[in-house]
Specification:
elongated, 8 strands, 3 domains, six-stranded mixed β-sheet, 59% helix, two-stranded antiparallel ribbon, 298 residues, 9 helices, alpha+beta
Length: 298
Amino acid sequence: MNNEIKLSDVFNKHIHKKLAIFKSNISIILNNFLFVCKYDRNKAISYGKQPRNCDYIIVKEMDDGQIQELDIVLSNKIAKPVSSRMFESEADAKDEFSELLEYQDISILTSIIIDTGYYDDNQKFYLKESDKLSKLEQLENIRLKYNCNIDVIGDCKYYYKKAINGKNASRNNYDIISHIINCILNGQLITEETLEASYSELTPQQRSLIDALNDKIIMGSDNPDNAKEYSKLEKQVQDLKKAQQILTKESTKLTEELKKTTIERDELKDRDNHAKELVKTLTVALNTYNKKEDEENE
């Protein structure tokens, strides 16, 4: 009796290739992702194409030059893969992409957050700022090849807002530091009224500096007005802590309500898509029936 067991009888003949793909998938390197497509089913239908049942399509280039296409469905803001395809090279994927990407919007993948299932332990991956320019140039080549649109509005808004906030922060920081210096020179307490800014707007370093200055002035002074001002500041701190607790509770409540609203919105979206498909099916059936009736009347 031969008790020899062949591995080929136990494992799929493509097991090594599948393991290699799995190893590549769990190694998150954002620079390997060619693009992400925010898939619009209505565009596909309007241009006479068979629509995909997904919300996003992510395309990744493997280390060996193979191309992986991953269809994604969003559920409660969590991306779930529903299908995938492999191509030996981008040339082999040309026909697929030409049909799939035409008139669709594509962009670069700048970040991925992986939900590990543990509280506050999500894994976050970001595309390096130094790599974004080359990825955008790569995206332009893809646009020219497959007649699609580049969507970088989100990035433009981000960088514009960052630039504006940077300028405002620099200006505000200069005004605050100037006021602190004047108070140090004159031995004056620093309050929100004299500072003309809320403590919540200050950096931790600025708040520490102000607290140290106020403590030094009060401890080295016999002026009763300073003691009264210090008591007033202490009361303001307590009031702010209470207000923070209230806001935290309200924020938690609003977050839960937002989750419910998102779920309801997704359900309505699914119903709407189902209704559109039903109308399309009924329209085809009605046209077929009318055509048959016309032929019988003839």
